[in-house]
Amino acid sequence: MWLYHENVTVYAQATTSLAQLDILVCTFFTCVFQNHSDNCSLAYSIPQMDHLLIWDETGPSPWAPMNESFDVPSNERYKLFNHSLRIFAFKNPVEADKYVYSNTETVLYGFVLPVLKLLGILSILSFFFTLCRVASMRNITNFYLTNLAVADLMVLISAATHEQCVTLTTHTVLDISYLGNSAQAVLTLLVYTGNVGIASSIAFVTLLSYDRYFAICYPFQHRNLNLKRRAIRAAVCIWFLSFSMNLTGFFYQFLVLNVPPFKCVVWPTEEKYEHLSSNVQVFVNNDATFLTMNLVVNYVFFCVFMLSLILTVTFNMLLIKGLHAPNPTGDQIRGPSKHLRRVTLILGINTAVVFVCLLPQAIVSLIVILSQSRKEVNVNDDVMELNLMAACARVMNSSINSVIFNAGSGRYRKAFKQAFCCRKGQQVPTNNIPLQTLPRTDPADQIRS
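Structure tokens predicted for G-protein coupled receptors family 1 profile domain-containing protein:
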């Protein structure tokens, strides 16, 4: 791969825009590099000083004297432009393939992920609609689920959205030319929104596990608390921490895009690259400061993931243990009832799906941490392909969270039918847990007559 970063002087029509200059210069260098010849459609001169001097083919000859007929202010037709240029020129297909989406990536980013996102957004909106229509569904558990749905909605809107747009436009990895001058702001906001959504989603899953464990294993203490105030405080703390922890990622993404882009890509002459555009904007920044910030971003996600995984598994294990404890009458349950098996299965599925879907991203973060900690900045390309799997898994997790957290609830299914079938007269029962499934309470919690 050959990099060119210099100033060039272009002698072109005075009305030429910056975008036209990019195309003009990129066309010239593409011709030179691909044909290995100076006989190109654009006229040029021998390098003068430290940069090239290029003429527009519609203008005067490169060797024509620059007299008054070309630069008189009153009748100016042609003008000298000092133009900054950064070029990627690939020597062979092996180098170029790293910057082109494969057929698999094109299918996943261009077709599979949009379908998953649409289904996820529809399921979340149906959940919101059910809460609005059925007043009895507005309880503490569904308050947590609403916050989880908002976090998942943030992920669905922002995750892999940039890759989807590139797949449908230029197919060139790291290309943001379709965003124009707003690329820095839009991409930074997308990445930040997605990171906040992921962190909040993990935190609310952990909070839901704790709330279910506390409500079932300590029912009397749970009822005596001010649940509404407690839930609001917990949600505010989670959102505040999520927005705060991801500020490093926000500044990292902002600074990465705060450099001059490579505006031209010269592809190899093979037929499979003919449909690719050369006029692009690719941002590459390998400064040590940005690598350190990237390391911090991966540390934050990996620590949040592991902490939430440990807490969620612990709460679910304690809950399962509590569900299988002796009942309040002192009789030992001979075996788990059908209801207990269903509750245990739903809890296991909820935890497994969430953390299995986010596991590829945790693995990628761990690999980046280990590589950069050993001063090995360039991670193996085969390992970085996990990013595609991680993106698909993130979207899948956010798409099905609303389903798996409600599909096992008969109460939610009745409320869903009531909301969409307009059966206002039917009331949804408010009790979630049958009394016979409650474990034995501690002596201190028993009501003495």
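The chain has a mean pLDDT of 78.
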